[in-house]
Every structure is written in C-alpha cells, then in structure tokens.
Amino acid sequence: AAIDVYNWLSSLADAVGFETIKGEVFDFSAVTGFLDSNLAAARKISKKRNLVHNTQDHPVALVVSDPYQEELLRDTMRITPEIPRKRIVWSIEEGTRFIQSWHTQGQLE
Question: Which domain holds residue 43?
Fold first, then answer.
C-alpha cells in the first residue's frame, strides 16, 4: 500500500512538476494497524524521494487520531523538532493550515 501511494505521488509530481506541489497531508487517522513492512517501505521510498527532489521547502503533515498512531509515526518517520517541515497533526484541516502557514510565514519554528 505504501508503495502504491508513493508511486501515485511520483506520477503526480512528474505530471505537474514537484515544485508546484505546496505540501502533502497523509491521513493515518483510520489506520488500526501498521505492518512493519509497510512502514519500512514508506521510510525507504520517502528517503529516496527526498534525494530526488528538493524537499527543504515541502511541508508534510501526518494526520493521527490517537497517541499510539502519533508515537509510531513519530518514531518510524523520524519526526523531530530538528525537521520542522514534518508535523503530526490531528485533522486534515490542521494539516492544511500547517502547509499554508509554512508558505506564508516561511519555515516555522
């Protein structure tokens, strides 16, 4: 499943140009279980994608619905204060606001 999402995103980026995509919101709120293989694949593909595209100004919001999801994604996707372009959020709306703020206020603290 993770590979399918990243393949779709790559196709979209190729079609419209990566620089035109202002950010991404990934909604994990309905996920009830995480397979280690999917998480590892997502991390690997994400890392490769970051090498291919300049992602320094490309915010990513990960929507969660409970502390379990939050902790798992924070650890697996290496979301730390040192990487401000990635953020755990609690709704799609919050994720959208994060992306908008990122671009209107510059890189957020």
Answer: 2-105
Report helix, strand or coil for 5: helix
How far CA 10 is from CA of 17, 57, 64, 80, 83, in Å, comes to 10, 17, 23, 25, 22
This prediction's pTM: 0.83
pLDDT in tens, the chain (109 residues): 667 877 788 888 889 988 899 999 999 999 888 777 777 777 787 788 777 877 888 999 999 999 999 998 898 888 888 889 999 999 999 999 999 999 998 765 5
Radius of gyration in angstroms for the set of CA atoms belonging to the chain, rounded to a whole number: 13
Give the closest residue to 21 by CA, choosing from 49, 47, 58: 58
Residue 63 has phi, psi (to 5 degrees) of -85, 130
CA 13, CA 31: separation in Å to the nearest integer?
25
Judge whether 92 and 55 are in contact, CB under 8 Å: no
Question: Which CATH number is 15's domain given?
Answer: 3.30.750
Count: domains in the chain: 1
